Amino acid sequence: PSYPGDESPHGRAIHRGETVIDSIDENDPYGRNEFTETLYTPIGSVGLLSIGTVGSRFDEIDVQFAEILAENAAAAVQVVETTARLREERERLDRFASVISHDLRNPLSIAMLSLDNARRTHDEADFDRAAEGLERMERMIDDLLTLARSGDDIEDTETADLARLTQDAWETIPTGDAALTCDSDGVVECDPSLLRNLLENLLRNAVEHNKDPLTVRVGMLDGDNGFYVVD
């Protein structure tokens, strides 16, 4: 049950961070009439150990024993919380490593292919495409580092044109004879750089895991509820 803060022995124990012993009378407001005394000692900052005695009083040894139990319980809770936090951080690092190995393939492939062509043709456009691929990798690494440090939540968003982002993503992957169709000119609220990463992955997967002839369609869902990528 809920008890008032500083007015109750439970609240005093929590707020003071120390053991409180309360004698029970017949008009007890907390329904403890079966006990002679009750003892409350904090379990760190997460809870309260409550013990009642019948027909006797708590002595110093009882208090020490209760506080040892509470300290052990607090230590156990801390171990559980630390383990969960470490597991979450490990999973985040695993995702981070997976994203690095997967997402950077597109701009790296473009840069390598363009540089190889530039060596043969000395065409300025090939050098520009290689430079664009490297710049794209730099932006992606910055985005990934931001996510790795802050978690999975995106706080700063802006309005972006879905068709433009899709076309930009399409141009960074080897598409062969595949075709792209944007079914709408809608806008999305997003982190444009991260959404482009997502689109690059989806479009590359569509090209790599389908047979020709292939058409990939991208468009807005009805009611501004998101967008779709269909192969």
Shape: elongated
End-to-end Cα distance, whole Å, is: 56 Å
Strand order of the largest sheet: 1-2-3
Low-confidence stretches: none
Beta fraction = 15-25%
SSE map:
Blueprint: H1 9-16, E1 20-23, E2 37-43, E3 47-53, H2 60-103, H3 105-121, H4 124-150, E4 158-161, H5 162-170, E5 179-182, E6 187-190, H6 192-208, E7 215-220, E8 227-230
Parallel strand pairs: 5-7
Antiparallel strand pairs: 1-2, 2-3, 4-6, 7-8
Helix pairs in contact: 2-4, 3-4, 5-6
Give the key terms.
231 residues, elongated, three-stranded antiparallel beta sheet, alpha+beta, single chain, three-stranded mixed beta sheet, 53% helix
Summary, kept brief:
This protein has 6 helices and 8 strands; from the N terminus they run H-E-E-E-H-H-H-E-H-E-E-H-E-E. It is α+β, with helices and mostly antiparallel strands and 231 residues long.
Describe this structure in words.
The chain is an alpha+beta fold. About 55% of the residues lie in helices and about 15% in strands. The protein has helices at about 10-15, 60-105, 105-120, 125-150, 160-170, 190-210, and strands spanning about 20-25, 35-45, 45-55, 160, 180, 185-190, 215-220, 225-230. The radius of gyration is 31 Å and the shape is elongated. The chain starts with 8 loop residues before the first helix and ends with a strand.
